[in-house]
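Milestone M4 deliverable, item 7.
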Amino acid sequence: MTDRRDTILPAELVEAARRVIDSNRAAGRRIATAESCTGGLVAAALTEVPGSSDVFVGGLVTYSNESKTALLKVSGDVLETFGAVSVATAWQMAQGALGKSEADVAVAITGVAGPGGGSEAKPVGTVVFARAERGGNPDHVVADTRQFGDLGRGGVRLQAALCALELLLPEADEPVAESP
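Output delivered:
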C-alpha cells in the first residue's frame, strides 16, 4: 500500500495502478500508454508504484491532433473522417504507442473531458479506449466507448484513467469493436 503522504493521486487510482503493475509483472508483460484527455494521468498513476519501471516502459501524451499524427502516426484521414474521439483514432494511438516502445501491450485514451468541447454525437464525458498487443492481429480491434456523463473535468479524467488501467490487466475482458 502506498503511504498517502507519498502521492497526490486518489487512493483508488494508485491501487488500480498497483494491480496493473503487479499482474503484468507476474505475466512477464511490459506496458505503454498513449493518452489524450487524461493528459498523462494513467502514466502518473503507474509511476506512483515503486519499482514500476520494470513493467511500465513509458507513455505519450498527444493532446492535439497534430501530436497524434506526428508522434503516434494517427492518419490525418482518420482524424478528419472519424474525429479525435473515435475507435479508429484510439486504435491507431494504441498501435502507435506499441511502435514507439518495447511494450507488449499499450492502451490509448481519447475523449471529451469538458466542460466544453462536446457535441450531440460526442457529449462531455465521452471517452474512447483501445488496447493493442504486440504480435496481435491488427484487424482485431479491441476498443470501447464509454459515456461517463458530465462528472466535471476531474471526474471524467479519473473515470477514464481507471477504465484504461482495467484494460491493461492481463485478464481484462476484451470489449471488441468493428475494424475502423
